[in-house]
Amino acid sequence: MTTLARWRAAQEGGTQQQRTRRPYLASECEDLREAEKWRNQVISEIARKVSQIQNAGLGEFRIRDLNDEINKLLREKGHWEVRIKELGGPDYVRVGPKMTDMDGQEAPGNRGYMYFGAAKDLPGVKELFEQEPPAPPRKTRGELMKDIDADYYGYRDDDDGVLVPLERIAERKAIKSALKEFTRKKLASMAETEDGEAEIHRTEIEEEEDLDSEDDEISLDETDERSEVQRFMAHVPNIPTQADIEAALVERKKRELLETFLGD
Question: What is the pTM of this model?
Answer without folding.
Answer: 0.43
